[in-house]
Amino acid sequence: MDSRQRHESSYAKCPFYRYEIDSDTRVVCEGLKPARTLSLKYPNKIVFVNYINHHCYSEYTQCGVYHLLCKQYEGDEKNG
Predict the structure, then answer these.
(1) What backbone phi and psi angles, to 5 degrees, belong to 20?
(2) Category of 26 on φ-ψ map: left (φ > 0), alpha (ψ -120 to 50) or beta
(3) Which long-range contacts (CB under 8 A, 24 or more apart) does 15-19 make?
(4) What does the alpha-carbon distance between residue 3 and residue 22 come to, in Å, rounded to a whole number?
(5) pTM summary value
(6) How many of the other CB atoms lie within 10 Å of CB of 62?
(7) 63-79: string of b/e by CB count within 10 Å (b at 16+)?
(8) pLDDT tens figures, 2-19
(9) Alpha-carbon distance 17 to 29, whole Å?
(10) Is 90 exceeded by the pLDDT of residue 72?
(11) Nearest-angstrom CA–CA distance, 58 and 73
(12) Count of alpha carbons within 13 angstroms of residue 69, beta-carbon side
């Protein structure tokens, strides 16, 4: 069994959150292109848990990835 199982949290509020891999201290978000993802790896479990609790589960509008993806969608609307 792979110890790096994906876990999609029901606590996540960010619209760009996709899943996390607890054992790998990694959160995966929607990517900049269709069918792509952004993977954010954290140096340790404490930093990882603090990040997802604050950014993914509550104050996601303070996340840099959130703002990056919002700008991407704004650009798509202007170009489409």
Answers:
(1) -135, 160
(2) beta
(3) 15/60, 16/60, 16/65, 16/66, 16/69, 17/56, 17/60
(4) 9
(5) 0.82
(6) 10
(7) bebbeebeeeeeeeeee
(8) 456 888 899 999 999 999
(9) 4
(10) no
(11) 21
(12) 20
Q: How confident is the model at residue 1 (pLDDT cuts 50, 70, 90)?
A: very low
Query: What pLDDT digit, counting tens, does each position of 18-45 carry?
Result: 999 988 899 999 999 889 999 999 999 9
pLDDT given for residue 77 in this prediction? 61
16 within 8 A of 65, measured Cβ to Cβ: yes
